[in-house]
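Hello Y.,

Per our agreement to keep a running log of every chain we model this quarter, I'm adding this entry. I've kept the format consistent with earlier entries: sequence first, then predicted structure.
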Amino acid sequence: MDFSCDPIKCLICSNKFPYSNGYFVSHLKKEHNMSLRDYVVKYDYNNDENKIPKCQCGYCNEPVPFWRGKFLEGQKLRKHQNHKWQKEQYIKKYGISKCYCGNNITTFNRGKPIKHCDKCVKDKKIYLDNTGIFKKGVLSGREGMLKKYGVDSYSKLDHVRKQYSKRMKENNPMSNLDIAKKAGNTQKLRIQSGEIVPYGGIKRKNAILKAKETKRKRYKNGCFDNEKMKKAIFEKYGVEHISQLEENRKKSSERMIAYNSDWKNHYNTKKYKNTSLYYQSSYEYEFLELCEDNGILHRIKNGNFYNYLNEDRGCGIRHITDFYLDDKFEIEIKSSYILKKQGGIQKVFAKKRAVEESGKRYIFILDKDYLEFLSLI
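Predicted structure for the entry above:
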């Protein structure tokens, strides 16, 4: 069952519940005396419990956990992830395993017994031969390798290194120039033709020095002038960055959909009614409804990008606010749950410092507390 930001239609009474499954869950309990799990089982699995995905622990036939409107297929029940519980179930199902020496194996790793008893492991009476099978011996690991071959790793033997090198050449299709040409303008061919120079080459060093000299001549501070670029774009298009243009936003969205087939599972941005405003959560949708009811929706715009200050770079490089009002107030909307999940109040303070550095005021709305915002309008 899809519980995205799209409206949810109740298959029992045909009522619709927009933008949050919370309203829908409450409706099921009050009007139909049914839990969300029972509803999903009835309409997604034809009321057949046997069709529900089962726990993957290997010892039971219980249904997998149910979370946020769906069964977590391929998962284990939380209690069945406990290694002590898995050890008990393994012994019940298969009995106590035996070592080749006849002793019981009492040590388990992640719910399964190791291959040998503690005594054999402690006395180093086992070693791993080239076939991957443990056998009785005197030394194991690096000590055995040093005594037998004079090296501490099998991969350091000359004949093994030659075998590895041969297999790598045979299995690398790009070593064949015909295949490399068909594949396109590869790095190897570009270096061979002189189109590019690998790092460390004298040509590349000269190119870097030339680029620095050009920047010193072209720009006042010796590097690219971001403020000059912002000013030029604003004079021509009315925005600070071309990514804020409606045409470019639309193209970016189309590319994201084209190259990410599962984008709906991770990206829930929607357009608010017949406006150019975008929202992601039910909290942001309710905020836009509040603005519309108060007749100020035309004063609300989509948020802007801001770079974190140097002392706050632990939070990231830049962030985007949700909305802004009258080009003076940047607005961020969160629930307590999302706030905790995204880094807590310290990250909010970092965003506030970044916004106020540009001369604007930062308004933070937590859990639909609109008191400060309403005082501004």
